[in-house]
């Protein structure tokens, strides 16, 4: 097909576009196909791994910050604003009432529990 296009169409712009289109429809070599499959599979594995790694790293940094404030307290008062009646409490009301030690404990539990379940 390439020889036919070159013979009858010459070196026009249309013939070069036709040749490029013809080249793009050719099947890949075995090595190129295997490398494309490998890198696609690798990309699919690395994307969730990077998300997990980013989540764990930020949780560890938060836990270290809580641990630092627990071992070297500068302000021992809590920013507790619990409301009465208790039915009007929301989840955003609780963290301000935790002391530094409890924040370390909760952050550590959130780091450790997923590993326990993944080991089962």
The profile of the biggest β sheet is: none
Low-confidence stretches: none
Mean pLDDT: 79
Order of helices and strands: HHHH
Cα-based radius of gyration, to the nearest Å = 31 Å
Q: State the helicity in percent bands.
A: 55-70%
Distance between the termini: 60 Å
Structural class: mainly alpha
Total strand count, please?
A: 0
DSSP strand content: under 5%
Overall, the morphology is elongated
* Continuous helix count: 4
From the structure above, extract its key features.
single chain; 0% strand; 120 residues; mainly alpha
Overview of the structural elements:
This protein is 68% helix and 0% strand. It has 120 residues and is mainly alpha-helical. The longest helix has 42 residues, at 30-71.
